[in-house]
Each structure stands twice: as C-alpha cells, then as structure tokens.
Amino acid sequence: MFSSIVASALLLSSTVLGAPLERRSPPGIPTTATAKSYLAALTVAAAGSQDGYSRDLFPTWITISGTCNTRETVLKRDGTDVVVNAACAATSGTWVSPYDGATWTAASDLDIDHLVPLSNAWKSGASAWTTAQRQTFANDLTNPQLLAVTDNVNESKSDSGPEDWKPPLSSYWCTYAKMWVKVKTVYDLTITSAEKTALTSMLDTC
C-alpha cells in the first residue's frame, strides 16, 4: 500500500505544480456514507505508548518537484492566485483556513497541519513503521492529511485527536471527521473509544 501511495503522491504533485489550481481542499475526501463505513471498520484500541516518539522519525518536508517541497506544494494547492518565486516560496496569494474561516494573504500566517498528528499516528500504529513509511505519511498529498490552516489554530490543536479538539468552525466538523477516518483507514491506524465517539458525533452533523 505504501509504495502505491508514494507513486500516486508524486503523480498528483506534478499535476498540482503544472496546471491551474481550482481545488481548495485536500484530495480523497470520502462521502459521508463511506466515511461511516470506514469508521465502523476501524480497530478500537487504547492509545499506545509515546515512548520513542520524535518528529525526526517522520521526515518532512521533502522535495516534491523541482525546488518545491511539501509545504510549498500544499500552499499552492490550497490557495488562490498563488505566486511563487524561483525558490518556490509563495510571495502572494489568498488562503482561507478551513478550520476557522479566516482569510490570509501572507504564507507566513499559515501552517501545514497534519490532520492526524504525527504523535497520534505513532501511538496508533506508526511506531512499528519504517522511517520511509513515516515519511510517506508526513508528506501525503494523495489523501486528506495535509491542509494549509491558520498558524495559531494549528498550535491550539497541537497533537490532539477529535475527542479533545475540533475545528472552531463547526460547519467543518463533518468534513474534518470524514478526512480523519479516511487517513486512519488508509494507514491501518487504530482509534480509541473516545475518538470513535467524537467522530461519530461529528459525522452526525453531515
């Protein structure tokens, strides 16, 4: 599965960087019905140990195409009228943060959020992965795992799961939950009982 994800990610990234951008949300968001099926099939288990966790075990950001790394690719994908310089840094554009609805015109006001936080992934199965597999997860452009969001909102989320943190914009809860269960399904990650309860509630807002 990981090799196919890498191949798809590279194909998507070349398309993103080489064509006019219309999409303002991550790829691969399932329908509500599919998301509920995914959630029902996920393995419920207690969170694993945080022992041994380090962000360095999830290498990011990697080069995607030319001089563009993962962060820059997501900024261009998620923004409108994004202009980049020779180093692929965004010099202008407009971004609407899906978590809070705030609009920004400076890339420095945005973080690229890992929807399923790296430490959450570690405690739900990624501790057993290879570094190459964790790199794929941390730079995934194929699934709805990376989003350009307001930096301080991302900081407030930190490594929390949906049982402890939800987007301030409640109208986004449905999409957030659908993306969360998709990512956990693709990577065969477990969920806690509290996490499942929160996701069920959020999917009920769809």
UniProtKB/TrEMBL annotation:
<keyword id="KW-0732">Signal</keyword>
<dbReference type="Pfam" id="PF07510">
    <property type="entry name" value="GmrSD_C"/>
</dbReference>
<dbReference type="InterPro" id="IPR011089">
    <property type="entry name" value="GmrSD_C"/>
</dbReference>
<feature type="signal peptide">
    <location>
        <begin position="1"/>
        <end position="18"/>
    </location>
</feature>
<protein>
    <recommendedName>
        <fullName>GmrSD restriction endonucleases C-terminal domain-containing protein</fullName>
    </recommendedName>
</protein>
<feature type="domain" description="GmrSD restriction endonucleases C-terminal">
    <location>
        <begin position="107"/>
        <end position="200"/>
    </location>
</feature>
